[in-house]
């Protein structure tokens, strides 16, 4: 088959953009049973409630991996055409007061997207920092507990993760999951979940 034929059979880039944006986040959240992040909540469904699962897979470093032979990798900047996400910075409306970026950290991807007409929104943040994993978690712990979130009792973290924790508010309706991967002296932080209020 010619290259033109193969290109014609590829899915439109817009269709795969959300999957690329949340590659790391979905791996982390899938183990927590978060329906809205797995795409099983309808646009108007306001009854979904999240319940942490037994094990959280480790997030993958977005810089890792190589393109398949004979293919051209899709540039990350393609996400910048999506108004709900931004590569290399915070998307407009990101709740930075609640979920601050550590000083000197490199933001890889951020996103804020309404969940139908439910009044809730999905938020995600992926960044790299030289802070220790415990320092990263403590920074978010202080911010979130001040805002009324409660940290869940921790199961032993995934063996690949340096740290992981979950925070809930509003009887579990608002939920945030944090995972920290420690590799070569740099921590890759994946944070995401469901919030309510203004975004």
UniProtKB/TrEMBL annotation:
Identify the PROSITE patterns for this entry: PROKAR_LIPOPROTEIN
Chain intervals for the UniProt region annotation (Disordered): 44-91
Amino acid composition bias (Low complexity), ranges on this chain? 62-75
- Protein known as: Lipoprotein
Origin organism of this chain? Cellulomonas fimi
